[in-house]
């Protein structure tokens, strides 16, 4: 009796295709957003409004434009900031990927790049993106800090919430490259990248000793005037 192997062969093909499709989700795909800040303006910002995919397993955002301080064609030392869409709440921030360690096999130069989430971010790598959620990503040059009013921000207290206006290219180019890495469904870039040069600037609050000296100076004014009248 002749036996047909077609059904078995079909099942094998189906199994191979299913395995291939399943494995394809294990490999990361990327979306790159590249550009340059205005030359001579290291305080400028780049904003990207995006929505995360349904599957956020392995989803992260990072930069790869910095290569070395010794390389004059390298992009500047970047910082990534994550906010809610209205930019009223800071969610996460990363300056150097391995600030907290745990990346001993990483090129020390590449450590200057930023990534969210990462072991070195302000949440120590515990932050996870929520699925199908909109976020605002902001890129800045090193030392351009987002500071909340009346809190210690990089050693300075500011009287209002805004940016420190202390950015620096460190002699490097204003070029940047932001990478969205995902598995399966891609994130949606809702708007951007948008270069922003008009933003709230944080104003430093005088130190208590400076305030005391200022007040004492005002207090002495009436005495000086009285002394002048008596002369």
Characterization of this structure:
This protein has a domain at 23-143 and 169-199: Jelly Rolls (Sandwich). Helices cover 18% and strands 28% of the residues. The protein is built from 2 helices and 13 strands. It has a 5-stranded antiparallel sheet, with no helix packed on it. It has a 4-stranded antiparallel sheet with strand order 1-12-3-6, with no helix packed on it. The radius of gyration is 26 Å and the shape is globular. The protein starts with 5 loop residues before the first helix and ends with a helix. Residues 1-6, 9-25 and 209-215 have low confidence and may be disordered.
Mind sketching the topology for me?
Elements: H1 6-24, E1 29-36, E2 45-51, E3 60-63, E4 78-83, E5 90-94, E6 115-116, E7 134-141, E8 146-147, E9 152-153, E10 156-157, E11 162-163, E12 175-182, E13 188-196, H2 208-230
Antiparallel strand pairs: 1-12, 2-7, 2-13, 3-6, 3-12, 4-5, 4-7, 8-11, 9-10
Termini separation comes to: 133 Å
Number of helices: 2
Rg, Å, rounded: 26 Å
Helix content: 10-25%
Strand elements, count: 13
CATH class of the domain at 23-143 and 169-199: Mainly Beta
Tell me the CATH architecture of the domain at 23-143 and 169-199.
Sandwich
Mean pLDDT across residues = 81
Q: In terms of per-residue confidence, which ranges show pLDDT below 50 for 5 or more consecutive residues?
A: 1-6, 9-25, 209-215
Shape: globular
Oligomerization:
single chain
The run of helices and strands is HEEEEEEEEEEEEEH
Largest pleated sheet: 5 strands, antiparallel
SSE-based structural type: alpha+beta
């Amino acid at each position: 009796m002749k036996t047909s192997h077609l059904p078995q062969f079909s099942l094998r093909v189906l199994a191979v295709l299913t395995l291939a499709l399943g494995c394809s989700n294990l490999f990361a795909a990327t979306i790159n957003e590249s550009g340059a800040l205005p030359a001579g303006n290291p305080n400028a910002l780049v904003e990207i409004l995006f929505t995360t995919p349904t599957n956020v397993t392995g989803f992260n955002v990072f930069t790869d434009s910095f290569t070395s301080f010794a390389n004059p064609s390298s992009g500047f030392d970047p910082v990534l900031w994550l906010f809610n869409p209205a930019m009223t709440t800071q969610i996460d921030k990363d300056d150097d990927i391995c600030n907290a360690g745990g990346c001993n096999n990483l090129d020390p130069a590449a450590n200057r790049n930023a990534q969210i989430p990462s072991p070195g971010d302000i949440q120590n790598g515990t932050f996870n993106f929520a699925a199908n959620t909109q976020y605002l990503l902001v890129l800045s040059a090193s030392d351009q800090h987002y500071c909340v009013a009346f809190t210690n921000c990089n050693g300075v207290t500011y009287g209002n919430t805004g940016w420190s206006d202390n950015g620096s290219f460190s002699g490097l180019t204003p070029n940047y490259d932001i990478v969205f890495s995902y598995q399966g469904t891609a994130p949606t870039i809702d708007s951007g990248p948008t270069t922003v040069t008009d933003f709230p600037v944080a104003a430093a609050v005088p130190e208590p000793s400076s305030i005391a000296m200022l007040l004492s100076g005002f207090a002495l004014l009436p005495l000086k005037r009285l002394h002048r009248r008596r002369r």
